[in-house]
């Protein structure tokens, strides 16, 4: 028998409503029931919403065995969008193909298997359930994963993120935050079909949904304390926010956890919290004036951060963002537990992956981490629960029994049969020749030592170590100036090159200002199609002043010419080139090419978001033996890789290659801002021990 009604496997009987508790047990007197009915149990908070239930829970708690503790763990599922997408046949079942399992059901099954053991009464999903709302296969993956919780009687809340709605606009100004989005969305939205109010209402914690169907409220109980979870979907309307106020007002004694997809952001350092307009909008419209809201949770922004704010009642509100979709393998199954420890007055936070420990041992790489130890992913929030909740309730948790904290047990159990792969030994280059030589190298562009610090005028050479395909700086166009390009000694720590090419002052404003290097019209590489596969490597660093408005889709490397000129091309953007090696508006690395084996459509590998002012080694490996093209960032393969298609198509005109810019409709465009180190193109797939990051002796 479980020690808490909300962590049992028993589903409520037909017709049971959350506002009614179980029948009173013998031994509970009439005065206790009357107090419960008014929202105050004889032992304190615990039944402010559920009359009669707190006394029942307390009675059972006092008569239970010694494993009972005064802490519980709240499970949180950050953006699962890539888990839903890359488990589908549309995406080649990328997870199943590599690991024989998928991360989304691994997360929910972990909760099912361990809810009683770790005292997990409730789970909160932070939205972006799927990546592409129009794709039923992705909804089917999410549906199956969440049904694991439902079938086991483990309640949860869910909300729609921007990827879960058919039309999701982001607003930058605080004045335009409320767009009446609930009313504007149609009733045919996939989210409302797959996760309707009727589905939520089957859970014993369910309280109410907003009439639009987009927002929901639950109440769960643990250790004799009841909490409300308010889950607001993407861009809640003014009416939905008024509903949230009403929910809080109608249950004035419940501490409230506000879940929302977008609220707190993360600064460019990847650690510090960063407020955004919509988060401030919710703070002003809902959070600051409701003292019951003591904690907020959101996803959307990539990483983790904590911000403590003070509300109108001089009390702290803990805002937390967590989202791992841009980590290794689209998040690698990382989720969170929040351990509420009423005895020690703290909330311990841990980020971990139940999927990593299930992967085949021979598939594990140094990027697989079952437990994150950085301060923004594992931390403690000090909170005096009684004092924090004193304005609206009489807080009194259950008395302590013998027991140990939850999170250390979770970690110990995860590592019982799992060992993390060691970090590879990193050996810096001994000299400029300390890299693996590959006979099939087609071009290897890098600056010369004696060029560092000199002016890079139009016509200045960028050497090719094969001598077959050197580049030259193109004639200055538009507002470009000689000083916009610099040869510098700055480089990636594992690059043996003397330095890098730095592109400055790039902008899209006005006529645009950018510079580039290009091969000669008769260079042999211009006609190469790489039928035996290829490896393209580049070291890059994005300028710290990069801005999406000025520098989105800035190109590292391209092959000139419209892809629409290719015979048989029928895909989108025919004005684009056959190769797009670029940084997107979200600072993702994009490798998009038209394969030589099939010129009808382009194919794209995508990375997660990368940081500014940070050196990265990028490698794209096309291997015809398994029909794959995989993008690696600092040695980590990205999950959004291509299956099918080989080689790189070349136009009939055999157009030149260019470094530092892209191409659009017969003209160079989209200049790079930042530094590009050595770039190598090889006409076969290479394993990591042959990359430029390896050393010649070891190779």
Automatic annotation (TrEMBL):
Chain residue ranges for the region called Disordered: 1-27
Record's signal peptide: none
Sequence intervals crossing the membrane: none
Calcineurin-like phosphoesterase domain location: 115-302
One Pfam family named in its UniProt record: Laminin_G_3
PROSITE patterns: TAT (PS51318)
Taxonomy, superkingdom: Bacteria
Protein name: Metallophosphoesterase
